[in-house]
Amino acid sequence: MSQIPADLRYTKSHEWLRTLPDGSVEIGITDHAQQSLGDLVFVEVPEAGRRLATGDACAVVESVKAASDVYSPVAGEVTAGNPQLTSQPDLINRDPYGEGWILRLKPSGSGGAAETLDAAAYEAAIAAGG
Amino acid sequence: MGRRTPLHDLHVDAGARMVDFGGWDMPVGYGSQIEEHHAVRRDAGMFDVSHMCTVDLRGAGVRPLLQRLLANDVGRLTVPGKALYSCMLRPDGGVIDDLIACYLDEKWFRLVVNAGTADKDLAWIKEYAKQIGVAVVPRRDLAMIAVQGPNARPKATALLPEPARAGAAKLGVFFGAAFDEWFVSRTGYTGEDGFEVALPSESAAQFWQALAGAGVRPCGLGARDTLRLEAGMNLYGNDMDETVTPLESGLAWTVVLDGNRDFVGKEALTKQRAAGVARKLTGLLLLERGVLRQHQQAYSPAGEGEVTSGTFSPTLERSIGLGRLPAAAEGTLEVDIRGKRVPARLVRPPFVRNGKAKIDL
After folding, report:
1. Is any Cβ of chain B less than 8 angstroms from the Cβ of A62?
2. Can you tell me the ipTM of this complex?
């Protein structure tokens, strides 16, 4: 069974979102997603300053098995990509909700946000085969 | 739901991720694919390969039958137990399957063919066998476990039935031997030393668990794929199929065109060789970040081609692949990876053998 922390928001495309104290948003991929992908071997993170619209492909996670895009669930400006992931892509396998975070962004407030799910709804979405 | 091997429930209990492979429910991995891969390169790993089909051919005409059916020449097998790798071809030279043929005696050869092609292979072989009076017996009563790695043979030998141990310990490379219903061959699909053991289905779970108890790590099809690709071995369906010949698939070394022997596909291959083989299968090493994958397009000064197999090599920590390219391609080329042209170098497989890198990075 995969971990689904109750204090995060989720997307149907298996990203998680954490709102930080300063109002910015941290984004990564879920435990379920990293399990499906298997051992990660490359991660491409966005550079600080890049402006993202909701639904933009903002990172690439590539495992032994497949490459997959990560989509930004909110519009905003990237404040950081996780610099650790370049040399240690397996941080996502080992700690998907912690050290394996992928990017942080400052929401622009306009452009809207994608529909996000709470933990229970995300668990149901996985169970339904999403 | 696909077909199940005798080890299916053990895989599920061990937490394996199961996938369809050639109509069979098979374990793709039990956890980290990279750790499984390293276990085989550094120590010992085991694979359930019971989906592969063992076929016994029995009758006085078995050697002439295989000399007609296979592009490699079983006339070269003169010592009982010796095996060879070959393609079986259509008249136009297209590859029906690749297989291992083992010579046991003048009335008995044993083949091991791929799971996804077993039915068409059997139908094809039977067509020729009936004309010559050879019995074709698929052995679906046998399971098969591949034990591979530098420590695989000693670990496995100790766990074989007592009457098989001394004989198995003496097997030379690419030799096999039958011990009652057990069959041990010193073959594999990883580039490491080891055995492939065919055994009665009802004995498979016990042997598997005994191997696990001896520290042999269960490995899935995912690791099997990265290991075989590092070893430069083709995968049927990826790197060759009925639309290409062995000469276009890096397998000219398995084709015996010289001499009077006539085999199915010989005429087509002889013509192709005389006209010049336009395409080749070559190894590829990606020079920047990213991973080569099947069906990516390759662009060389000599023309375009396609990646037929690609992966991340856990041993080299680089992406490697096989690709079908114009025969004149050499040096470096570019591969379209998700819309970006990434440089790659043509290299000669194998990439890795017996735990060691065989190419310059």
Report:
1. yes
2. 0.84
Establish if A2 belongs to a structural domain. Answer: no
* B contact residues 285-304, partner A, Cβ 8 Å cutoff: 289-291, 293
CATH classification at residue B153: 3.30.1360.120
What are residue B183's DSSP bridge partners? B178, B198
CA gap A11, A46 in Å, rounded: 19
Cβ-nearest to A65 among B222, B289, B314 = B222
Report, as ranges of residue numbers, the positions in chain B whose pLDDT lies below 50: none
Contacts of B314 in chain A (CB under 8 A): 64
Task: For the beta carbon of residue B231, count every other beta carbon within 10 angstroms.
Answer: 19
Q: Do A64 and B314 touch (CB under 8 A)?
A: yes
Domain CATH number, residue A105: 2.40.50.100
pLDDT, tens digit, for every residue of A44-101? 999 999 999 999 999 999 999 889 999 999 999 999 999 999 999 999 999 999 999 9
Between CA B292 and CA B275 the distance in angstroms is 31
Domain termination residue (choose one: B173, B195, B227) = B227
Rounded CA gap, B50 and B143, in Å?
5
Question: Is the CB of B312 less than 8 angstroms away from the CB of A64?
Answer: yes
Tens digits of per-residue pLDDT, A13-48?
A: 999 999 999 999 999 999 999 999 999 999 999 999
